[in-house]
Amino acid sequence: MDIFSIFNLFGGLAFFLYGMNVMSSGLEKVAGGRLEKMLRQMTSNPYKGLLLGAGITIAIQSSSALTVMLVGLVNSGIMELGQTIGVIMGAHIGTTLTAWILSLSGIDASAGFFLKMLKPESFAPIFALIGVCMMMASQNSRRKSMGAILVGFSILMFGMILMSKSMAPLADMPNFQSILTAFTNPILGVLVGAIFTGVIQSSAAAVGILQALSLTGSISFGMAVPIIMGMNVGTCVTALISSIGVNTNAKRVAVAHISCNILGVIICLPLFFVGNYVLEHYILNTTIITNTITPVGIALSHTIFNIATTIFLFPFIKQIEKLAVTVVKPQTDKDEENVFLDERLLVSPSFAITECKAMTDTMAIMAKKNLFRSIKMINNYSPKRLDKILRKEPRIDTYEDKLGTFLVKLSSKDMSEKDSNEISKLLHSIGDFERIGDHAINILKVAQEMHEKGVHFSEEAKQELQIAINALSEISELTIKAFCENDTEAAKKVEPLEQVMDILTTEIKDRHIKRLQEGRCTIELGFMLSDIVNNIERVSDHYSNVAACMIQIEDSALNTHDYLNEVKNSDSAEYKHDFEMYKEKYSFSHLSSV
Predict the structure, then answer these.
(1) 3-class SS at 220?
(2) Which pLDDT tens digit goes with each residue over 498-543?
(3) What phi and psi, each to the nearest 5 degrees, are found at residue 292?
(4) Domain shared by 282 and 361, yes or no
(5) Is residue 594 part of a domain?
(6) Four-CA torsion 54, 60, 62, 68, nearest 10 degrees
(7) What is the average pLDDT value for the chain, to the nearest integer?
(8) pLDDT tens digits, residue range 153-173?
(9) Domain check: are 304 and 368 in the same one?
(10) Which 3 state secondary structure label does DSSP give 339?
């Protein structure tokens, strides 16, 4: 083995890690956040968490990335510690798929055509060609991402081939054989596996190198199994690093992760040797420890270890949670507050976008509730309600500030066109929802002034204002439901109602002027009524902006003002129908004439 073999080894490792990164990024884009949404919506059911953990790890091909996400979710207060343990166990099972794919490198080159086609050096160039063609020729972002998956997979396999070839000369080196005798000590094997995996921070790459090494025919089951167990411990380094600077519960996620793997080694390593002793002396009269292991044997051992660990520890999820709580004590009597959106979520853009959308939905609902609390204060003043409104308003501002900052950072990440459009929609919408919260405060100030001066609107003004409030209630419900459910068809009904809102607010002002001229109202009350009506009209404008933005994003264009002008001047039968329906529904015709 010469210096060029060493170059090939580290070069192959570089290709492997880069290919893994490209493939996992493409897989995440194709998944489009669906698995992440399921993860966020999961209950405390550990069985569901186990399946989701395995599914997401298979989709993104990285148990470390999933664990970092879990740390971020707990640090942001989105998930509880107990929910993450089942997911972590599922991730341990999901990560074994990579080893099975890599085991294809062990197929005999003299096999038949179809079996030979399963060897990486046979199919990797074909996958690379198809992937590059898809990336260069297709205009569809999903197909481009699928092309990236194929190219990443080919690069990964090419790295595996390089590593295997670089290690082939080791089989004929006497010094190498003497070094391997040290690995007959299982404790040393566990430590070497843990340290090596911790350094490269990829259990998949570590298993791949072990599989490449096994092709020399020098690695036995007794050497490989403890190293594989150590690799599972070493992969926890990424989670431990990510837990630096997070709150207590997030640190406990990392502790739970490493506890599962260490407990798995403590349970399974003795069982492996006890099982071998039983097979050797009572069943097969032969030992498996000294038998040469193949890439398939490594994949099988990896899978059995992770599944066995999960079976043994799954009934004790509550105890593992208590262990993590015991190990990581709160830093203060009152633990630090949760981070709004932890930047660790940026490791998975699709997932981060899902969380941003959920936060924006919460912000929209919060702004709407504060708006109608303020409106209720006009005729039903309450100090308790006043305090609640004033407490919620800074939170709405915080949502706008934090979400905006996080989304700008997120927009610089590599993502699909769909995810990029979602970020544009959220960035445009959070400003409108924040302004709705400001208009709620403006209405509150008018209600406070009326309360302090002891003045009230006339019955006619109250009835007119109530019709406008009813219309505002419908447009807010319609817009927020459309936004939260991504329903563009419902969003198309917002603009005709907004046009009716404009007519209503103008008519309310006209009817007030008439009463003023007849001496049935005062100028002071007129100013107050005008302020409330103006704020109601502007809130409806913001809802219209949100709905228009949704529709334009769906049509892959973003010029809200042009869209609104086009809709208002169009001959659309649907628009005219909705406009006339809302106009009739919120008519003043049943009120007494002025």
Answers:
(1) strand
(2) 999 999 999 988 888 888 777 777 787 888 889 999 999 999 999 9
(3) -70, 135
(4) no
(5) no
(6) -90
(7) 82
(8) 888 778 877 777 776 666 556
(9) no
(10) coil
Residue 438 CA neighbour count, 13 Å, CB half: 12
**Residue 300 in this model has a pLDDT that exceeds 60:** yes
More confident residue, 583 or 347: 583
Residues 400, 254 share a domain: no
Same domain? 195 vs 322:
yes
| Better-scored residue on pLDDT, 342 or 208 | 208
Note the pLDDT of residue 349.
Answer: 82
Per 3-state DSSP, what percentage of the chain is helix, strand, and coil (rounded to 5)?
80, 0, 20
pLDDT of residue 363: 93
Rg (CA), the chain: 32
Residue 592 lies in a domain: no
Question: What span, in angstroms and rounded, lies between the C-alpha atoms of 419 and 425?
Answer: 10
Side chain identity at residue 554, one-letter code: E
Nearest to 217 by CA among 322, 290, 316: 290
Query: Phi, psi (5° rounding) for residue 103?
Result: -65, -10
d(CA 560, CA 471): 22
More confident residue, 25 or 492: 492
- Compute, in degrees rounded to 10, the torsion defined by CA atoms 27, 28, 32, 33: 140
Using an 8 Å Cβ cutoff, are 560 and 548 in contact? yes
Q: Say yes or no: 370 and 429 in one domain.
A: yes
Which residues, 6+ apart, have CB-to-CB distance to 408 below 8 Å?
427
Q: What CA–CA distance (Å, rounded) separates 347 from 341?
A: 13
Q: In degrees rounded to 5, what are phi and psi of residue 220? A: -100, 170
102 with 53, same domain? yes
pLDDT by residue (tens digit) across 225-263? 898 999 888 888 877 877 776 778 778 888 898 899 899
DSSP bridge partners of 220? 292
Tell me, what's the pLDDT at 333? 46
Say if 148 falls within a structural domain.
yes
Our CA angle for 502, 504, 506, nearest 5°, is 70
Name the H helices within 236-348.
237-242, 248-278, 295-313, 317-327
Residue 51 has pLDDT above 90, yes or no: no
Do residue 235 and residue 376 come from a single domain? no
